[in-house]
Amino acid sequence: MNHVSPAVPRTLAEKVWDDHLVVKGEAGSPDLIYIDLHLVHEVTSPQAFDGLRLAGRPVRRPDLTIATEDHNTPTLDIDKPIADLTSRTQIQTLRNNCAEFGVRLHPLGDIEQGIVHVVGPQLGLTMPGITVVCGDSHTSTHGAFGAMAFGIGTSEVEHVLATQTLPLTPFKTMAITVEGELRPGVTAKDIILAVIAQIGTGGGQGYVLEFRGSAIRSLSMEGRMTVCNMSIEAGARAGMIAPDQVTYDYLEGRAHAPKGEDWDAAVAYWKTLGTDADAVFDAEVFLDANELEPFVTWGTNPGQGASLSGNVPDPSAIADPNERSSAERALEYMDLEAGTPLKEIRVDAVFMGSCTNSRIEDLRAFASVIKGQKKADGVRVMVVPGSARVRIEAEAEGIDQIVKDFGAEWRFAGCSMCLGMNPDQLAPGERCASTSNRNFEGRQGKGGRTHLVSPLVAAATAIRGTLSSPWDLGVTANSTSEGVNA
Amino acid sequence: MDKVSVVTGVAVPLERANVDTDQIIPAVFLKRVTKTGFDDALFYAWRQDPDFVLNRAEFAGARVLIAGPDFGTGSSREHAVWALRDYGFRAVLSPRFGDIFRGNAGKQGLLAGEISEEDVERIWAAIEAQPGIEASVDLVSKTVTIGEITAPFVIDDYTRWRLLEGLDDIGLTLRDEAQITRFELARETWRPRTIPVQQAVGD
């Protein structure tokens, strides 16, 4: 399948692309790319299945397709019928479609149910060197394994269901090199928020990002997933990290990871995937990990962020007129004054969850800070594991009890307050420190105000009631999680 | 898909940058299982403001949206395209689009063309000088004309061809089905399968 001479140095992304080329596009038409794994959820699939039905087409490869329920699902009373009728209908539609087309489904209540981007890696379905798509922009998460993974629209969902391929124009490549050692309390989330603040929400458009450098290598798989997850917030459809021993150790033994001879063949192949020494990227960005501090957003897009020790910026100091008017609008929406120290901002809610930060290590990081503490008065704290399995694992470790003793709510798995499609929403004007990925206007509920933070910052904020890092608690977070240096 | 060649109609200036798809259509409207009926959901939060540009009488029946840079960033929701289309828009011009949005638009017959920031500013000024003025977006010549202004826009050749011909992507791909099958036969056994191995192997 390789149309490029092996002598030509290639990047990780180019290697995965070349090995999935079904038809090379001629004269400006796109390449036809094979899709190894298609993840499906209830929100972006009903119209795609409808399209298949209208055209009389089957799902070409049900054995490369898997569905779960996550966006709409309640995180309380999951044994009762879903109260919201439109949500219930959408969930039921997915169940009907999966039954009709022979697609494996993990419904609410199933042990493998959860956020689609937590479920894939947990089952060992996500692996290096594969292509992964889903009708969800945070599919970029799976790039942490050295897969090429990106979000698609519903028309493309239908296209993949029908053909197991996508016509795609080759991406440009961008290296994002993060060198140095993260200080204690600084995590993968702070890296990616700082990257987005540096290159902007449009900086990655048209690119596949490859995250590299010693700080990326030092991250756990959970931390790498957090970084790749938010590639889309920089405008890039995909973010990737070359596989290494950390990747193989995470994968080995998982339900769908290759076994025996297949495992050996796979690892031998995966070891060839890293970007060649002489390969050239179309763009390069550098970030110094040594200088990084806990990061937080102050505005209404993920690029509007700053170190937590800083102040709300003054829009009049921003040169670009579009960025300036965006910042002015953002401060008005967020009800913030330029020059206010970020640490003086008081929150009403803390949300710990989402496909960015809801894996077991994220929950361990959060729990390590709140253990034995009480949440600030008047702050609502919600902890939502990424999957049913993560929830069970956390409960086995006593994390649920730590959360409850703290005064926080311990919920069932799903997307929850990241986007408020279920009842978990902010009220108008409420301010939330959230471990999710988007601080767009109204994202967490109409009129809600979101500050994106890491699990450690979310925990410290829940204790103090104002945006805070573990550094403000006078203790050093002692955790092995999410790239936190113990 | 209907063929698209020239879109002519009232042009609306959306003088904002970074218009993400959560603003184009909030998540609460994504629970429907149909592909139409999203017109009321378009820019739902912003339309609560009586001064929002779409609420101005001069822009009733608009077909062309002239937006600031980074339009359609964020969520992959194709509902954003459906909502624009249901409202009546047939073309959107912006200096930069979110990649997924631009792809979705091309598949649903919504013309998404990239235009320079300078031209956007000029067009916004022309519309403000004469609200309700019509624009003509010509996919054949890849230009937009509004009043005295004619400006080029960029759209990739493949999307342009598909829009001009009204072609359906799945039908096009299935012409290569033999090659897909050949690729599948050579696919390594370590690659993932969602159905348990004992069922998938079946021998």
TrEMBL record, chain B:
It comes from the Bacteria. InterPro entries: 3-IsopropMal_deHydase_ssu (IPR004431), Aconitase/3IPM_dehydase_swvl (IPR015928), AconitaseA/IPMdHydase_ssu_swvl (IPR000573), IPMI_Swivel (IPR033940), LeuD (IPR050075). Coiled coil: none annotated. GO terms for cellular component: 3-isopropylmalate dehydratase complex. Pathway: Amino-acid biosynthesis; L-leucine biosynthesis; L-leucine from 3-methyl-2-oxobutanoate: step 2/4. Keywords: Amino-acid biosynthesis, Branched-chain amino acid biosynthesis, Leucine biosynthesis, Lyase. Heterodimer of LeuC and LeuD. This is 3-isopropylmalate dehydratase small subunit. It comes from Lacisediminihabitans profunda. The gene is leuD.
